[in-house]
Amino acid sequence: MKNAARAVFYFLGLIILSLGIILNTKSSFGVTPIISVAYCLSLIHNWNFGNASFVMYCVLAVIEYVVKGKNFRPIDLLQIPLSVILTRFFNLFGALLPDVKSLPMRILCLILGIAFTGIGAAMNVDTRLIPNPGDGIVQAIADRLGQKMGNVKNVFDLFCVALTAVIGLVSTGHLIGIGIGTIAAMIGVGRFIWLYNHFFQKTQQKLTGVTW
User: Fold this and answer.
1) Which of 34, 55, 57, 102 is 20 to 30 A removed from 41 (C-alpha atoms)?
2) Torsion sign (Cα): 127, 128, 129, 132
């Protein structure tokens, strides 16, 4: 029963996470840092966003393999099929959700996007199953350097934003996918992860049998 509950929280977390990421893009205020490179390249080259994100996640999985070295586990390879599922939800929600134009709706999309991204990430990580490659690479670097995951996450987000800015400026002469919403996501997602864990982590632990 607890294994079933664990699977439900895991996949529900993936769905909520992907919904949050797409809501953030729909706000047109700027996308979340972790997928900003894929978003920028998809617009420049007219690629499918979900497919571009999948390629990016595969690259992150390869880098994680290099960083972990002998500590890389065969089970970590499941991040690849996980990425297939996650990015298909990107395409699904991207097609189902309409583009918004009015400022109040854009702000609402941004707030909901940040909230869902944080909640989905917390639900997913708290199951202690297979992390998505974005979280996996951050954890791998943190372990390798002996640093706190939160600090490494901040630096990694800044790197993604900087890389996206360079790609956009070099290719088109202006920023693509980077805006106030990106900064808000860098700050807000972590806060919603904290809020979820503060109010619901113990309940999730009881239902799934996972303890920290």
Assistant:
1) 102
2) positive
By three-state DSSP, how is residue 101 classified?
coil
Residue-wise pLDDT tens digits, 135-184: 888 888 988 898 887 788 889 999 999 999 999 999 999 999 999 999 99
Radius of gyration of the chain (CA): 17
Can you tell me the distance from the alpha carbon of 104 to that of 131, in angstroms, rounded to the nearest whole number? 34
Q: What is the pLDDT of residue 212?
A: 57
What's the angle, vertex CA 14, arms to CA 180 and CA 195, rounded to 5?
60
Q: ∠172-87-69 over CA atoms, to 5°?
A: 90
CA–CA distances in Å: residue 112 to residues 9, 117, 119, 168, 189 = 19, 8, 10, 26, 11
CA dist., res. 60 & res. 65, Å (int): 9
d(Cα 121, Cα 33) in Å, to the nearest integer? 14
The Cα 17–Cα 206 span in angstroms is 22
The C-alpha atoms of residue 65 and residue 76 are separated, in whole angstroms, by 9
- DSSP secondary structure, 181-197, as one string: HHHHHHHHHHHHHHHHH
